[in-house]
Write a structure and sequence with these properties.
4 helices; 3-stranded antiparallel β-sheet; single chain; alpha+beta
Length: 115
């Protein structure tokens, strides 16, 4: 039985490493590690294994990144979120970038109407 436990432990560690890598990849450098989020679809979850293990591994990966990790299952997707309080200057930067993106989308989405 010890071999099975060792194999399970190694699989779990690989899952934590993989999730940490995916979570790190979602971070924008200008936000200095804040506003982290990862969304795993049902196909991703099926590939990764038992939902309970994926959630636990995501929380551990979040700890490695300094996140206050929360997981939410919504419509077959697992949301992994960093729920830490964000410093004001980073929050202001994110708000400005979001507003600019919305302005671009609105401007680029305008099409002449045929009367």
């Amino acid at each position: 039985m010890p071999a099975k436990n060792e194999l399970s432990r190694r699989r779990y560690e690989k899952l934590v490493d993989r999730l940490e890598s995916l979570m790190r990849a979602t971070l924008k450098p200008q936000y200095k590690g804040y506003f982290g989020q990862l969304v795993l679809g049902s196909d991703d979850l099926a590939e990764m294994g038992d939902l309970k293990d994926v959630r636990q591994a995501a929380r551990e990966a979040g700890q490695r990144l300094g996140w206050k990790t929360a997981t939410r299952l919504v419509g077959g997707r697992l949301f992994v979120l960093d729920e830490r309080s964000v410093p004001e200057h980073i929050e202001a930067l994110a708000e400005d970038e979001t507003a600019a993106a919305m302005d671009r989308a609105r401007r680029d989405g305008r099409r002449p109407r045929l009367l």
